[in-house]
Amino acid sequence: MALSNIVLENLTNCPICNEKFNLPRFLPCYHTYCQHCLKDYIESEIEKYGKSLSKIKCVVCQSVFPLIPDTEPEKYVAELPMDNLALSIIKRKEVGDSENICYPCKRIDITSPAVCYCSKCVEFLCKDCEKYHKTNKSTSNHLLVSIAKIVKETDLLKHAPPVICPEHRESEMAMYCFSHEVVCCSSCVSEHHSQCKTVATVEHAVARFKEKRMFEAFNKNLQKSKLKYEEEIKKGTEHLGQLDHSASFICAEIEEMRKMINKHFDDLEVSAKKQLVSIKNEQTDELEDKIDEFRMRSLMLEDSEQVLKAFVQNASPGLLLFEMKRLKNQHMECEKFIHQSKTLLAKRLLDFEPDKNVAFITSSLKHMGKVFVKGVFDVTRDVPKNTMTLKTKRKNARITGISSFPDGRIVVTDENNCTLTLFDGEGKEVNELVLLGKPWDVATLDRHRCVITMRGLNVLQYVNVNDMTLLRQIAIDDGCWGVSVYGEELVIGFDNKVEIFDFGGRSEHVIPCLGSDYYVTIDNLGRFYHKHHGNTLHCRHVSGKFAFSYYNAELVNLTGITIDNDGNIYVAGFHSNNVHQLTPDGSLMRIILSGIDGIYQPLKLHFSKDFSKLLVANNNGSSVAVYSFTNIS
Fold first, then answer.
1. What is the CATH architecture assignment of 1-82?
2. DSSP 165
3. What Pfam families does UniProt report for this protein, alphabetically (predicted)?
4. For the chain, first and last CA: distance in Å?
5. Which CATH class is domain 385-628?
6. What angle do CA 249, 250, 252 make, to 5 degrees?
7. Contacts of 117 (CB under 8 A, 6+ apart)
8. Within 13 Å and on the Cβ side, how many CA atoms surround 209?
9. For the chain, how many helices (H) and strands (E)?
10. What is residue 597's DSSP assignment?
């Protein structure tokens, strides 16, 4: 199997200088650099952070490694293990590109045809040097291979020298720790893996990997990751077309406006178009660069597939596991990049905001309008992490309602057990109230009161959570679902309508809406959000005026809805097992939570009062998952 040029570059080119390796040395993370490039990099870091610098980061994977105290960078780098595989492939390519030359003879300016290859010295030898190699005591045990057997680069994998331990420089990495998933030497086993349950020889490990088809499984993961990149590249390419289309539309709009004003604005028209072209080119260049970056990583994953296949078929066990680790690091870095960077290819449309003074056509007008990018949004929150789970003491719980108080306390309704449960800010159950009927949703009114929708009873119940007492019960006409508070009013969802009540239970306004509004939430602008049939979110003003709708094939059976302090909208998909984050105008920013984050059949969504925690009634309401943000706008 021949290796592609890109794969060869991946194995033989330095990530720093992007040139062919010169004395390749590898760090403990198995990423290789030119010896002088690595020395220069460490020296530049010392110059930047001072001589007290004790650690360096790998340029590729950002892994951190300690520097040896009082050791010059040149000496530190020189003691790192040589990447003999990369060196042998470089030399094999040099032989393939020219005559088969003996390297020892070449060093003394003699040209002799090479007849064999020494895997230990990583050199090609002529007949005389071969004889000397066999008779010299220090090299007599070296493995010599006929040059006729090394036709292509993959042949070098069969005869590659053993991998040397980065920590114990003279020891061969002939062992494998299953607990830590690392190749190591016998000294590493004694020092670092003596307590590990399973440590075996690399031969045994490879046999086990092949038996369990782990190489094939990893190859499938590479293919899946490559597909993710291909999908993002496809989306980005489509967005490029939309960028051109929106630019053309705005250009026509500018020209139409130009017809409405006199010749005085010719210079302003030119200025506006220059601004449009400049921003459009800037955005195009940026998006194309991002697409190229995704495409490069996609090719990297494709190359990893080829390398893995070649190593599985041809490499020694130790070398195979060594390369497997490098490919895993590379794959993890690609997975991390696409998980964190999908928004880099977000849709971006150009828009045009006319100057308010255009209508008056005055000489004071400085420009025709402003070109700006529509569709690219600053994500003000990072991906939240599951930090706590709330569970009631009762069995078979189905939590359908969640709300919180300013002091951090959380209150939930359990439909199956007909209870209202209070938790403190640390997630500990504090108190419980048994209700006369099945509750659905709950909303807090102030520091200690909340209102509950009792669907089966067609009533609203008001509760003081300080002593868990029922304050009052108000009958309403229909079975009620979701409830949200808007000033001194309640916004309640029913089948085919949303109704506004005052706190006394008097109906003030009815807005017809198709579908069952299991959950409804309202923002500070008086816009409420509710479910329209199975998978569509509708946004309307309390006056009844329609604002927008949101539909996405990856949002199946819409349930919970909530809003953060930036006006971003969060919508849960019960059957798609995810939470979509939308902009205030209803455009998808990203799928912020999914199955890999532990989301399964989510019901109610709710933000804590300080907006630092997103609470999700998870697993069909059997518990409440608390996702905390570390980056709050």
1. 2-Layer Sandwich (3.30)
2. P
3. zf-RING_UBOX
4. 53
5. mainly beta
6. 70
7. 88, 123, 124, 125, 144, 145, 146, 147, 150, 159
8. 23
9. 12, 35
10. G
Closest CA to 293 of 232, 379, 225: 232
Question: Nearest-CA neighbor of 281 among 245, 244, 250?
Answer: 244
Query: Which pair of tokens denotes residue 50?
Result: 């001072």
- Amino acid 15 reads P
CA distance 414 to 404: 15
Q: Could you say which DSSP state residue 185 is in?
A: -
- In the prediction, which pLDDT does 3 show? 45
**Residue pair 314/154 in contact by the 8 Å Cβ criterion:** yes
CA 306: distance to chain centroid? 25
Cα 521 to Cα 562: distance, rounded to the nearest angstrom: 6
C-beta of residue 152 within 8 angstroms of C-beta of residue 139: no
What pLDDT, on a 0 to 100 scale, did the predictor assign at position 384?
80
| Backbone φ, ψ for residue 590 (5° rounding) | -175, 165
Tell me the three-class secondary structure of 506-518, residue by residue: CEEEEEEEEEECC
Length of the chain: 633
pLDDT averaged per 10 residues, the chain (length 633): 48 82 81 89 86 83 79 83 70 55 84 82 84 87 78 59 73 87 89 89 91 88 88 84 79 75 71 86 85 86 88 86 86 83 74 68 58 54 79 93 94 96 93 93 94 90 94 87 91 89 87 80 88 81 85 90 91 93 88 88 93 93 89 44
Separation of alpha carbons 454 and 181, rounded Å: 54
